[in-house]
């Protein structure tokens, strides 16, 4: 049930992005006038014929995600970032999206239908004839199975509540931003300035939580795959375009900035293995321009030292090139052609196998056989304390945590390391004096880890709210204690 | 009055400039094989080039699989 709710929030977020992006795309006027004037754009004659309204949907969602992230970044910059503002943004976008969908389905008058039909016929008459042979049936089915398996495995991983350090490195500052109402948490965590992906995480966390943020990350790979389809359809035709989309999905589906360790290495190597084939392939109209764009984007990303994850938009043009190399493999002699195809297929299958290799406990919580609370109690050491704190702490509570995992707390949280670095480089030795100083600094509660060894022991100044022992998977047991400063 | 052709003509491009112009034009302008790419009459790739490509693909695949599964 929790997974279904998170998936529903993902759909709402994407619908909202569609609603925000569609008017912008229409304003820009690139492709937005195609749905009701199909075929009237002279320089894009093949796209509507082959893949319908897919370009408009894809570009609207992409532009809407960027626009929504821009609004989130602006809200954070002026100190107005809070869940109600983001919910309002989402509601406005969702209403716009629903309106756009309903408007597209409204019956049109006869003259508009006639003009559309005439223009479509005239447009098809001047369409180039593609003489590329269609992909083999085994290739189509294999690509479908491999892509489906990779996407499903990655989806199950994304439906697991975030617990590991890799998963929380970017999600934790994003959640803190919603509490602090600005981006100071990113500076405190040495995470650098927030970027578009961080804005998406903030958006998703405000709607649902960490799982929805991971689902947004997951949805980027299918979105990139659809972009590859849109990009490849005029170049290699509809059927091969879906093969290019499958290659992108396999290459990008495991790469999450806020999820488990990257699984997309094999998929990326699939493209790396195929691309030198361009030296043997014939030139294809438009492919050079797409590759120049991808290379220029990658160079700019490397120069400004952008996150490797932000280089993913360069993958669709590369996948189109890899698809063209696969087509051109037919010009090779039979034996080397079969060897090359087998090696590339093995890489793709391995990438899907890595993505679908979801541990059993994650699988159970992802499909709903185990509730998220039970999973988090076992895997997140601070979750029991966070559950108590979220239930009883008031809005103005300020927690000082000795554990760096603070994602599950809804109140304002400061880590001990950050506090000492900024305010208290030399804490007093006397526990009572230390508590007094913490109270003066504005803290109301403490999360102590192994308090018998390192934490304050002025019991008369502390009221214990919860206390428990957590055993990590590596066998290390730690003692946690959530206390209130009196 | 019409100016003589010697005055309207621009400076003669250097070989390097001409070459750069050719590279840019060849990259950006539509390719000479735009829409029709018949596979049946496509020239076959030379065997040594084909085996070179296969060696690269197999090497990348082998290294990737070894690193992933070992």
Largest sheet of chain A: 5 strands, mixed
Q: So how many helices of chain B? A: 3
The percentage of residues in β strands of chain A lies in: 5-15%
CA-based gyration radius of chain A? 26 Å
Largest sheet of chain B: none
Share of residues in strands of chain B: under 5%
How many whole angstroms does the radius of gyration of chain B measure? 24 Å
Largest interface: A-B, 40 and 32 residues
The number of helical elements of chain A comes to 20
Descriptive report:
Chain A has 486 residues and is of the alpha/beta class. Chain A has two domains: 2-361, no CATH class; 381-485, D-Maltodextrin-Binding Protein, domain 2 (3-Layer(aba) Sandwich). Chain A is built from 20 helices and five strands. Chain A has helices spanning 2-28, 46-51, 54-77, 83-105, 110-125, 137-158, 165-180, 184-188, 196-207, 210-236, 238-252, 265-274, 287-303, 315-328, 334-356, 360-367, 372-379, 383-392, 416-422, 431-440; strands spanning 398-401, 412-415, 445-449, 462-471, 477-485. A five-stranded mixed sheet of chain A has the order 2-1-3-5-4. By secondary structure, chain B is mainly α. Chain B has a domain at 45-70. Helices cover 59% and strands 0% of the residues of chain B. Chain B contains three helices and no strands. Chain B has helices at residues 5-8, 15-28, 47-69. Classes of the chains: A alpha/beta (486), B mainly alpha (70). The A-B interface holds A 128-133, 265-266, 269, 272-274, 276-277, 279-280, 282-286, 288-289, 292, 327-328, 330-333, 336-337, 339-340, 343-344, 346-347, 350, 354 and B 27-28, 30-39, 42-45, 47, 49-51, 53-54, 56-58, 60-61, 64-65, 67-69.
